[in-house]
Amino acid sequence: MPLKKISLKYWALLLCLGLPWRGFSAMLTGSFTPLSPGTNINLTALGPVDWIDWGQFTEFAYDRKFIPANLISDFTVVGNPTPAQGPFRINSLSGGYSWQDGLQNSFATNTTTGDYMLGKDNGFSITVPIGTTTNILRIYVASLAGGGNFTATLSDGGAGPFSSSSANVVEGCYTLTNAGATAGATLTVTWTGSANNSDIVLQSAALAYLTANNPPSATLTIPELNANISVSSTQTVQAVATDSDGAVSLAQFFAETNEIGETTASPYSIDWTNATPGRHSLTVKVTDNLGATYTSKPLDVFVYTNGGSLAGGGAVPPAAVILSDEGTNDWAHWGLTSATDFDHKAGVPQQISNFTTVGTNAALQYGDNLTAYSWTGGTPAASASLSTTGIYIYGLTNGFQLTVPAGRQSRTVKVYVGLYGARSDFRAWLSDASAPEFSDTTLTSNYDNAYQVYTLNYQAASDNQTLTVRHTALNSYDTVFGNVTLQAATLSLGPMPLSPIILLTNAVSASNFFSFSFGTDPGAAYEVLYADSLSTTNWQLLTNFTGDGTVWSITDTNTAPSRFYRVLRP
């Protein structure tokens, strides 16, 4: 039947009375369900739209679903708690939480952590933009003493509010079925103590659509982060994928934006062949039976050839370093008086680059570093004595990158870094990919500073290459102050390389040709020369080419009674 039209008179009456027009049906209902001890909550299954888990690392951090734009906010503190009232981290709850699509840790199994607050009216508040879609939001809480008060309100007032109280010594879930009356509607939830002796806990939250199709989820499981893969190998790339209200119908695997394979059945796995040398960012995109998609968190790997070398390690740096003594060929220091200060060795071509930032945050300067740096012969600052300065950058995946020259001559670079409230991801790789990448993720501190000097010994397969060094935050244990730092770097040269030995093999002589073979290094230039007499100085060029790490065969079709050959690698 046709829809009835609303007259202009009725619209005017609504406006005059100040009554809202309900274009959508708002709702807000709730219930509380106690959780039995040992219950394991699967956040990936219950939070296909979004989820968040507090307290896994520290009271100042969280893990959450990997998606481009999260919906569930981090908590804000409610009330006026003293430092002795929290928030604090707890890791001994009876219920556990698991997931397989996390932002910081891709996987977790049965974590029993959360954040707690003490005292009456002290607690937590979170917000979720819900619009007019009907959702289910689950909030997992605990009241360990004194009881707690739970409230939920819609910003547009279309329905609700919902309120409830919880008794002592109970862990449970508040389930809110909700939808706003307007597209910009937001749901706000508060959980506070109801008595002076209250001890309340906030653990997790999970969001799902009630009537709309929920997206699937996926995470790469093979290879591992920062894996080194030989260019000649076949690499398995595998993912775990689920769909909470349907089925996964397609899994597509990508290196950057290039599809490298796809599959429609579990286990979701492909063989990756003919990978190009260098760094690659792998993802998997899954599609469910109703067309909803999800793209996984990227996983970085490195594909290498041969002919070069790269080895390194980390150690706690000394209390003082004289950069001009250690960096015989070049040295650099950052942050002497400001975040943009870059001092380096004067009177020589600059070899250590200035840093570039990784991520979106800006570098800042600090002055309480563990190691004190001194130098002479610098520019723009000619000298410094026992400077404890450096630069830092906040935020997950943010950090620093710099480059130094690489070639067939061996070199040693030392890079002085640190962090606070984070775990770092330190990597170094050669531009010609002639050796496996160096990586280290062991530098970590939940609540304090940590420092490391990485010493890298390296040599490329060919000249005019670079070594790239990157230091970023792999995990952030403090969402406000967690950071990684960069202070200094030094560079020194090793001996010039000896000319490589080229062994000629598989010689075959016939009436009208002569052939032989030899191994090549990737990126190296080769010249094959011939002469009809050893006494001559007039060697002729037969062919030249660039090596690729394989064995090359050379054939000369000639009718000379004798001929001599030599292979040069300039």
Walk me through the structure.
The protein has 570 residues and is mostly beta strands. It has four domains: 15-209, Jelly Rolls (Sandwich); 217-304, Immunoglobulin-like; 309-493, Sandwich (Jelly Rolls); 505-568, Immunoglobulin-like. 3% of the residues lie in helices and 53% in strands. It is built from three helices and 47 strands. Strands 26, 28, 29, 30, 31, 33, 35, 36, 37, 38, 39, 40 and 41 form a 13-stranded antiparallel sheet that branches. Strands 1, 3, 4, 6, 9, 11, 14 and 16 form an eight-stranded antiparallel sheet that branches. Strands 18, 20, 21, 23, 24 and 25 form a six-stranded mixed sheet that branches. A hairpin with a 7-residue loop joins strand 12 and strand 13. It is flat. The chain starts with 7 loop residues before the first helix and ends with a strand. Residues 1-23 have low confidence and may be disordered.
How are the SSEs placed, and which strands pair?
Blueprint: H1 8-17, E1 27-34, E2 40-42, H2 43-46, E3 50-54, E4 62-64, E5 76-78, E6 88-90, E7 96-99, E8 108-111, E9 114-118, E10 123-129, E11 135-145, E12 148-154, E13 162-166, E14 170-179, E15 186-193, E16 199-209, E17 217-222, E18 227-230, E19 235-242, E20 248-255, E21 258-263, E22 268-272, E23 278-288, E24 293-295, E25 299-304, E26 309-315, E27 320-322, H3 323-326, E28 330-334, E29 342-345, E30 356-358, E31 364-366, E32 372-375, E33 378-379, E34 384-387, E35 390-394, E36 399-406, E37 411-430, E38 438-440, E39 444-459, E40 465-476, E41 483-493, E42 505-509, E43 514-519, E44 525-531, E45 540-546, E46 551-556, E47 564-568
Parallel strand pairs: 2-7, 18-25, 27-32
Antiparallel strand pairs: 1-14, 3-4, 3-16, 5-10, 6-9, 7-8, 9-16, 10-15, 11-14, 11-16, 12-13, 12-15, 17-19, 19-22, 20-21, 20-23, 23-24, 23-25, 26-39, 28-29, 28-41, 29-33, 30-36, 31-35, 32-34, 35-41, 36-40, 37-38, 37-39, 37-40, 37-41, 42-43, 43-46, 44-45, 44-47
